[in-house]
Amino acid sequence: MKKDWWKEAVVYEIYPRSFMDSNGDGIGDLQGIISKLDYLKELGVDALWITPVYKSPQDDNGYDIADYMSIDPMFGGLSDMEELIAKAKERGICVLMDLVLNHSSDEHIWFQEAKKSRDNRYHDYYVWVDGEEGHPPNELCSCFGGSAWEWVPELKQYYLHQFSVKQPDLNWENKNMRYEIYRMINWWIDKGVGGFRLDVIDLIGKEPLKGITGNGPHLHEYIREMNARTFGGKNLLTVGETWGATPETAKIFSNSDGDEFSMVFQFEHSLLDQQEGKEKWDLKPLDFVKLKKILSKWQTELSDNGWNSLFWNNHDLPRIVSRWGNDDTYREESAKMLATLLYFMKGTPFIYQGEELAMTNVKYPIEEYRDIELLNLYRERLEKGYPKEEIMQSIYTKGRDNARTPMQWNASPNGGFTTGTPWIKVNPNYTEINAEEQLQRSGSVLNYYKALIHLRKQLKSICRGDYELLLPEHKQLFAYVRCSEGEKVIVICNFTASEIDDDWYCKVFREEKEGEYELLLSNYEKGNVELKPYEARVYRKRTAD
Ligand code: TEU
Ligand code: CA
Questions:
Q1: Which of 188, 191, 193 is nearest to 1 (CA)?
Q2: Which of 227, 306, 345, 358 is spaced 20 to 30 Å from 128 by Cα?
Q3: CA distances (Å), 122 to each of 107, 119, 165, in order?
Q4: Are 453 and 44 in contact (CB under 8 A)?
Q5: What's the CA-to-centroid distance between 316 and ligand 1, angstroms?
Q6: To which H or E segment does residue 37 belong?
Q7: pTM to 2 decimal places
Q8: Catalytic hit among 13, 150, 202, 241
Q9: Ligand 1 environment, Cβ below 6 A
Q10: Closest residue by CA, ligand 1 atom 10
């Protein structure tokens, strides 16, 4: 593989339990993914990020791992994973595993041993604090609601869990624990994986009694030790999930010496419709000009040192076409515009399953939801007296299950995802929105994504070129320039449902003429002077030859 191949790659995130069910039990599985490798190859992606499929009680849909070197029977077996890695490789696609190293499942043998006694050899693999029942060490809260401390009467101690009570935090101060993790990582590297996504990796340096969770004082020391003893120098794609990353810390996490990660997922743009200092459920309208500034800041700050990931969606986020696009009148136009806006920037795109179809959010009755985070929120806010309609509106808008309804493959029952009863209801709009219909329609979102992925790989200025935001204060237009070695590309996106005819064209092309540019990609058949609702265009300056 070419050095730093991941700088030119496009990654596709698969949430296996919702991707494709091969055996009719209603849960997606590894053989289901294998059956769709040609679809993924045709889309043009280079790597697949597979969210956890290890042995797990599924309290947090697999982010509670009970055995890191296994596959949970619901997804298949190790031989299926080895087959997936091999068959993906035959198609020039590599597989990225999801490493959840901040916590394990409470059903992991380490925790089963740890809670037996204070002097058990595994006790210190976790974070314990002496105390009195009913008096947790401090006010630290779990991301899934309630205290982050769980009382174990037999030990007269609390253990830390920043997520569910069945996800005890691992103690990274313990060297034996770290070295068992590194052994596991090398075991997966030897199986031929192309890299890793590292779950909430900026939490492993926690010092909870000091109230420190993210970016602890030893965080980079642990990451560099892990890098040196596992993936370092092996040209693998590693992406850390770092909710608290700033451009300054991202430059360290993704520094060009390669002693930490290839890149990180930063979330500054994804927090823009959340009220400051409040929870993700407390909404506010998106500030478009601020979105432009934040995405542009990350482009310029990491232009020479560090590397950006580029994503709108993942298995934790609402679907972008519903969140910031338009999922009724202009669903396809806005989905294509959002992809154009983001994926011609500098960085590695991460496309989430179904994004390429412009799949939408859902509005279910509460009993149809499955995610621990939103079910805890529902119960907690009902108890606090929030109006049910308000709670449901938050769930409709930001609930993680929006991203976890099954892939919509065709118009047959359950969208062709399963012949059984799906673990979560399929979005009823699968009859109109599905891959089979879009494969055969030239103007579909799916075919636009194929063209976009192909084009971005042809343009050298996209991977390595400079970035300049145009018209930063414009309230509808997101326009920027990419330049490198004589190639100049201009990306123009109308972010709204209204036409733009305010002479945008002169402001963008300034003294140049549109005739000096060739239109390479657009989400409308014919471009006029005014920009239509959600219209996106990619131009390249004609060169002398
Ligand atoms: O998510 C980290 C995380 O903090 C988000 O889940 C956040 O709490 C919220 O859901 C974003 O809106 C990672 C995984 O992606 C997530 O699926 C896991 O639930 C979590 O860590 C615990 O492993
Ligand atoms: Ca299955």
A1: 193
A2: 227
A3: 13, 8, 18
A4: yes
A5: 6
A6: helix 37-43
A7: 0.98
A8: 241
A9: 60, 63, 100, 143, 163, 199-200, 241, 243, 280, 315-316, 373, 400
A10: 316
Element (H, E) at 517: strand 517-522
Residues ≥6 apart with Cβ < 8 Å to 522 = 535, 536, 537, 538
E strands present in 124-262: 128-130, 149-152, 157-160, 195-198, 237-241
The size of the chain, in residues, is 545
Q: What share of the chain is helix, strand, coil (3-state, %, to 5)?
A: 35, 15, 50
In the structure, ligand 2 is a single-atom ion and the residues with CB under 5 Å from it are: 21, 23, 25, 27, 29
Asked whether the beta carbons of 165 and 194 are under 8 A apart, the reply is no
pLDDT band at 99 (very low <50, low <70, confident <90, very high): very high
Interval 337-379: pLDDT, tens: 999 999 999 999 999 999 999 999 999 999 999 999 999 999 9
Rounded to an integer, what distance in angstroms lies between the CA atom of residue 107 and that of residue 113? 10
199 is catalytic: yes
Q: What is the CA radius of gyration of the chain?
A: 23
